[in-house]
Fold:
Amino acid sequence: MAAEKGEKGAAAKEVAGERMVTLESSDGEEFHMSEAAAQLSTLLRHVIEGGGIDNGIPLPKVAARTLEKVIMYCEKHAKAAAKSDSDPSAAAGSSSDNTAAASEDLEKWDRKLVNGLSQDALFDLIVAADYLVIDGLLDATCRKVADMMKGKTPDEIRKIFNILNDFTKEEEEEMRREYAWAFDD
Amino acid sequence: MASPPRPPEPMPSAAGLESLEGLVLDTVISKAGARPAAALACASTRLRAAVADDSLWRRFCAEDLGLDALLDPEDRPLPSFQVAYKVWLESFGMYPLLLVKRVKQFWSSLKIFLSGNFPEALKTLCKGVSEAQLNSAEDDLGFKLPLPTRLLYRFCNAQLPFSEDHGANERISTHGIIGGYAFYNHWVNVHLSPLDQIVEETRELYHGFNEVFNGRKLIVVATSWFRPKTFLLNCSNGQLYVGTNNLPKGEMIPCVPKSLIRPTDNDMPQDGLLLWLEEHLRRLQNGMIKIRMLMTSRYISLYPEAPPSCTSAMTNGVKVRASAVFVPEHPESGGPQERCVYTYSIRLSVPEACMLGGVYYSSCQLYSRHWIIRSRDWVVSDMRGEGVIGEYPVLSPGQEEFVYESCTPMPKGPGSVEGSFSFVPGKLSRPEGKPFEVTVAPFPLEVPEYIF
Structure:
């Protein structure tokens, strides 16, 4: 669905009753996401509220493949939120089992999303989530990286994250002494 | 002269861990935890700098250790939370951290409670022992102590021991942190024993009753001042026991529900001593047991103050509260009929006014009692008597409760006591109206899950 440039009115077009937002990635590709999904990003929410998005929102810091994942996350979470809002039994509180199961499913979906990414893609997604201020996505992606570090020695961490060891031999000795408490078993 | 840097390794990619912006990297590190943070710090200089953010260590100290002040285990000040984490781990890293946090929390909460409610007892608590002292005690005993007990004593070496100085002993005699009861001539006040006293008293027990205790890995952890009452920790299975009158023959009763005892669990071991102390603190905190006066000294009284163990009834404005405590060490307990002895405490008062037939009286006086004692719903005793413990208390509106204690032996099994008191309005010497009965609501007598 092409955005019509120069047309008066917001680029927030309606599709099947849902208002849409147009986003442009750093490499010039156009994406569309529902306004409801865009609201998950504090940055986008402010831009939309401030108006002036006639020709779409440019995101020079976010590449296409990353933006695609961002939109997937936001659409999924926006739908889930809409579903639980419109669920009549949710208000009664008696369906706490349902809401617990639903949020567990959502967590599973999040984990699947981050597990399927290469390390590069994961870090790009973290940077994007931080820039766009999407708390849930930042949380899920950071947690993934954190999990990758658990139970690892400094050497293993360097290998996993492709890190250069720029310590001198003396410095390494010093660090080993300082953090002896962490490595004694 | 500095050594040459390492040979070059492949360049890191553009979007990588090290190029994450400060706050984001902080988020990742705080989710990973303290040990991964340490590994990161040793990986590169950039990561070492990121890990040096003290707000990260403040969070690790709070979450992992329950530590929110810049103090070392001996309350000395420290320069940063990063140093604090290291110092605490060096001191306690040989224990599961979850347990360290839990035991630290216990002593801290107990001290706060005592500070506000029983500062005299707080003063009897001693500085914790070292790993070396614990190892030495284990050598003396010939067996190992359960991990939770070791950790309890690392944080606090229980209370001041008996000493040669009788005056000093007398001054702290009612300051046992477990507390007790006093009825007729049976006074009990239980103190938690410091490590040296544990070793000494355990030796005495083994020496005195060798056939019974030899090879059993029991230690004496708490004892009563005044009448003897002994608590023993079984270091094999982690259960805590109280000795009955027949302790010399090895007779003892478990003090903690068996299902809770897990002395060798990897992440959160718990033994009878820890569970017992924690339950005791909970009861102090929620007011189930309170601090009362004994003559001119304060002590922790074990008589329950709240339902269901403590019952309450009001008749004509006269309130009677009643509760009982199991007394395992009493000389009259046991025997061929396997009797149990209970002590009970009755509290009488007129909270607002004593009213009878529309008339208010400024006082009333007790002249007789009627007690019915049941064992498994069978009446085993139904007696009347004059006064209570030889007294005929006069009650007036708004005055403090008149409290008295007594005891009763019982057949084994759950039971109850109920009854009534006869009062006259005014005074016995000058009654102002007709006598009336005041109900004592039935209160339970049963061997509890936790015995203190």
